[in-house]
Amino acid sequence: MIHVCSLARLYETVEEIGARHVVSLLGDEAAVLRPPCIAPENHLWLRLHDISTPLDGYTMPGEDHIATLIRFVRDWDRRAPLLVHCYAGISRSTASAYASVCALNPQRDEASIAQALRRASPTATPNIRIVSLADKLLGRDGRMVAAIETIGRGAMAAEATPFRLDLE
Q1: Nearest of 111, 93, 4, 98 to residue 46 by alpha carbon
Q2: DSSP 8-state class, residue 154
Q3: What pTM was estimated for this model as a whole?
Q4: How far separated are the first and last CA of the chain, in Å rounded?
Q5: What is the pLDDT of residues 127-136, one digit of tens each?
Q6: 10: part of which helix (H) or strand (E)?
Q7: Per residue in 54-97, pLDDT tens?
Q8: Are strands 163-165 and 2-6 parallel, antiparallel or unpaired?
């Protein structure tokens, strides 16, 4: 299973769920100290910002970021949970968790995954750039983007409550 949380809840969530793989989605301005129980090779830090269009001084999610994410989750042995986090646990991490479930279950319907995401997190507002890039790389023909557009924007919040998104 894949868990999602904010940077502020990283350490407690890793400990609580027993995660052994972590994906961090933060720009370089936010320092991430890898939790001690996470081996260096099991920590992927994608240095990007929560933007969907270019903005000076910010790193927009790119195809290389998402290809790296997909490789990382496909290499995950699934013996312990995977934790995905960004700054607030609302946009970059929810998009990446959604993309990860789509990558690991090519036969699963995109809409059912998006609905499961909404049930798990009322605040989830997946970064559409990340979803769009994953959709392209996974050959989902726009269905991932359409499914996320169907669930709409999540409830406003400064920080999401940690949640779990099941693979099946």
Answers
A1: 93
A2: P
A3: 0.96
A4: 9
A5: 999 999 999 9
A6: helix 10-17
A7: 999 999 999 999 999 999 999 999 999 999 999 999 999 999 99
A8: antiparallel
